[in-house]
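Annotated sample (chain length 277).
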Amino acid sequence: MNTTVILPAAGLGSRFAVDGRASASKIEFELRHKPVFLRTIELFHGRADVGQIILAVHPKKLDDFKFRWADQLGFLGVKLIGGGEAERWQTVQLALDHVTDEATHVAVHDAARPCASHEVVGRVFEATERLSAVVPGLPMGDTVKRADDVDDSTGHHDPLDAIFEPGDNAAGSAKRISETVPRNGLYRVQTPQAFEKQLITEAYQGIDASNATGITDDASVAERAGHKVFIVEGDPLNLKLTHPADAELMEAVLRMREEKDTKQAAVKQLFGDDDDE
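Output written by the structure step:
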């Protein structure tokens, strides 16, 4: 199995900041003293079943990004390309043109998901040796409601609110629930999503602006092409950096894992490996 990993990162995500710490883009924001995209690359770099890593950034930011990070990306053997300007599917479609002939599989992982565990990556890749399309996911544990788009809360509007609380008043808005959605069989899908190369390449060849409505991930593309996609167990800590609060959670996760690794290394050094006996 020879897998090319595509990391879509073409969203602008400009001026991302947490507690006064800002970065040129969201994927360059530092978590535990290392940019998000580098932490994500490290999830796959050095794996025996990964032959290529492609990082796709916004085409208008490609030159600036290359100026700042080309040396490190070159050292890691990562291919940097320009992605799509508008939609994620366009970025993946462009990246597929750069996949090596030697690749047998393609995995797509959000560049803004640096906390995926090595265990969940391994589960997805192992399953892809048997199945042609695999995604990680978590069963819905919360009650799921569908609500109307229209604000239908109380009908009471104080004109003074517009003066003293301009902008969206999230605390005071409410939407009317239209139904409770049965959660049996519902999953929250994550990445990496892995596929046989020919399957996902041909599936994306059938996508363009005229029929891309409703595509939210790579599995959607495979499903639309008529392929079966399978789910394996995901990771609750496989968080995606979207809002500033996500960065705080991610730093806590990374700190916890670093402390765990340090303890395991200390135990190993103190007692040695059982295999040494």
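Annotation: Residues 3-140+186-276 form a domain with the Spore Coat Polysaccharide Biosynthesis Protein SpsA; Chain A fold (CATH 3.90.550.10).
Annotation: The chain has a mean pLDDT of 87.
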